[in-house]
Amino acid sequence: MRQILTKLKPTGGFAHVVHIGLNALLPIVVFILVRLNNVFIQVALAIILLSKWRMLAVNLRYWPANIRANGIDLMVGMSTLIFMIHTTSVTWQLLWVVLYGAWLIGLKPMGNTIGVAAQAGIGQLFGLMALFIEWPAAPAYGLVLGGGIICYVAARHFFNSFDEPYSRLLSYIWGYFAAALIWILSHWLLFYGVIAQPTLLLSVVGYGAAVLYYIDHFNMSSKSLRRQIVFVMIAVITVVLTLSNWRDRVV
To answer: Are 100 and 77 within 8 A, CB to CB?
Structure first.
């Protein structure tokens, strides 16, 4: 499958230069469309989706795998669009343009373990942030379904970089855990600025678990190091839960 995806991406010559140029142009086009009028937001979304046409330029039986492999990139693109829509500050919108460009040109092409793990972490963070920013008053089942899918896709992306034989099972477990946590916290949906409490907690637990898996996979783990990571995770979660204002639905 990696060979098929590689063939769809130019790796040198004029085609490679054009590919980089189009990636650099995409965030700028999205920014211009958002600034023009709300009517053009659907056009911006369509352009982001059309930028992934290569994942369907293969035999039909490869579509599910390609869509899953490109899920993180789609989440980052659509999340960036949502972030731009929900701010009227040109400065912030330009910042998102720069970050999206850095993602497309710098981080997304990385295929090493660290790069893929970073892609998964950023994809999950952006996806969850966008979900709660765009749909804070959604029914619980909508948030649960959306959050579960986002975390499943991120976990599958992460584990595939390690050739983990149980990647599907572990991804389902993480998606189920995220969905269950969101279902509980959706009854007291708290926000810290623009970050919802489920996003913060899932990021802490997810990143901590990812680090533990990484150091164990490469035999870098020790009992002391594991204890330190777990202690930091528990400490952050305890502070968040203790200092939260549970009397209000939205803070």
So the answer is: yes
Q: What is the mean pLDDT of the chain?
A: 87
Distance between CA atoms of 160 and 64, rounded to whole angstroms? 15
- Are 178 and 147 in contact by the 8 Å Cβ rule? The answer is yes
- Claim: this prediction has a pTM higher than 0.90: no
List pLDDT tens digits, range 29-69: 999 999 987 778 999 999 999 888 877 777 778 778 888 88
**What distance in Å separates the CA atoms of residue 146 and residue 49, rounded to the nearest whole number?**
18
Distance CA 160, CA 156 (A): 6
Contacts of 117 (CB under 8 A, 6+ apart): 158, 161, 210, 214
Q: Pick the closest to residue 48 from 100, 86, 7 (CA basis).
A: 100
C-alpha–C-alpha distance, residues 206 and 122, integer Å: 11
Low-confidence ranges of the chain (pLDDT < 70): 1-16, 246-251
Strands (E), the chain: 191-192, 195-196
Phi, psi of 196 (to 5 degrees): -75, 150
Q: Are 75 and 123 in contact (CB under 8 A)?
A: yes
Question: What is the Cα–Cα distance from 50 to 44, expressed in whole angstroms?
Answer: 10
**Are the C-beta atoms of residues 150 and 124 closer than 8 Å to each other?**
yes
What residues have CB less than 8 Å from 173, skipping those under 6 apart?
none
- Which distant-in-sequence residues (6+ apart) come within 8 Å of 19 by Cβ? 9, 10
> Cα separation of 64 and 129, whole Å?
25
